[in-house]
């Protein structure tokens, strides 16, 4: 007990500053806690951290982009290199020791890998995150502040001139056109009921008229127009009328003399062909190659069958 009291008194802090008492306190700290002898164990640990963590981060941050992931993989495998170096050193210093036998060395390596792979992977991922952050920051600093682009005057948008409206048609009225159709019907013996001049716009009834755009021809059913065509050429509108009327005439004539529906198309085409050839050779030549004629459907049907 007296020795313990002396030691505790010696280790108690000094109330007054005195060189002799300060030296006594330092000696007491060395005797009580081991003093600076513990630094011999701390320094190797700090060196290992420096070699395995700090130095690789500095090297990878400064490396080129092509070698980035190669150095990262080598860094991940670096603990194995350190472990192998330590084992080789131990085997060289203690060749006859049981710990340096091959089976014990293999067990040591397996034990180190099994226990250290997950913690080291976490440390490696943390280090790579620091590397990528530092590399990105260095790129931003090297690029400097982003300068706003100079304002460029927007080019003036030049619009093309608007298309000119079609000229107003003033050559003929609807009444004049109907009179011309009646004269044509009288020349070729067309029935009045087949002429497209009836104002009853229903039951698929064709009708021709004139407005400020020119001649118009359309078929009406329940007040709705379909198959509309427009032109400012009188000969063209008369050809449309002739095609319409001769189609109806040929259809009625052929329908009365056939016994099977397959006979209708060829007989219709033959009959309308002869009618138009007799009326007007120019209309006939146009009708033969007109895809919009009324009989064009039957012509295509015969060609594909």
Automatic annotation (TrEMBL):
UniProt cross-references to InterPro entries, sorted A to Z: Imm63 (IPR028952)
TM spans (from-to): 42-61, 68-88, 108-134
Keywords of the record: Membrane, Transmembrane, Transmembrane helix
Segments forming domain Immunity protein: 214-289
Entry keyword annotation includes Transmembrane helix: yes
Pfam family membership, one: Imm63
Official protein name in the record: Immunity protein 63 domain-containing protein
The species this protein was found in: Sphingomonas ursincola
């Amino acid at each position: 007990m007296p020795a313990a009291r002396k030691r505790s008194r010696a280790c108690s802090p000094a109330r007054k500053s005195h060189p002799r008492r300060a030296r006594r306190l330092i000696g007491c700290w060395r005797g009580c806690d081991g003093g600076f002898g513990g630094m011999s164990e701390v320094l190797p640990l700090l060196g290992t951290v420096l070699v395995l963590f700090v130095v690789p981060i500095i090297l990878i941050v400064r490396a080129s982009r092509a070698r980035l992931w190669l150095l990262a993989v080598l860094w991940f495998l670096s603990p194995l290199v350190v472990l192998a170096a330590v084992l080789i050193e131990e085997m060289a210093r203690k060749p006859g020791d049981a710990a340096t036998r091959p089976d014990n060395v293999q067990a040591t390596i397996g034990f180190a890998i099994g226990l250290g792979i997950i913690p080291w992977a976490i440390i490696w991922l943390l280090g790579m995150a620091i590397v990528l952050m530092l590399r990105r920051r260095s790129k931003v600093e090297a690029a400097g502040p982003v300068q706003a682009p100079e304002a460029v005057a927007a080019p003036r948008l030049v619009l093309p001139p608007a298309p000119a409206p079609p000229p107003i048609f003033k050559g003929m009225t609807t009444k004049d056109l109907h009179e011309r159709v009646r004269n044509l019907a009288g020349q070729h013996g067309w029935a009045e009921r087949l002429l497209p001049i009836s104002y009853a716009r229903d039951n698929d009834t064709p009708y021709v008229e004139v407005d400020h755009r020119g001649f118009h021809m359309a078929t009406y059913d329940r007040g709705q127009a379909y198959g509309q065509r427009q032109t400012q050429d009188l000969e063209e509108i008369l050809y449309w009328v002739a095609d319409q009327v001769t189609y109806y005439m040929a259809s009625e004539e052929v329908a009365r003399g056939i016994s099977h529906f397959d006979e209708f198309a060829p007989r219709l085409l033959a009959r309308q062909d002869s009618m138009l050839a007799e009326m007007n050779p120019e209309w006939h030549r146009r009708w033969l190659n007109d895809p919009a004629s009324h009989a064009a459907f039957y012509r295509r049907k015969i060609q594909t069958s």
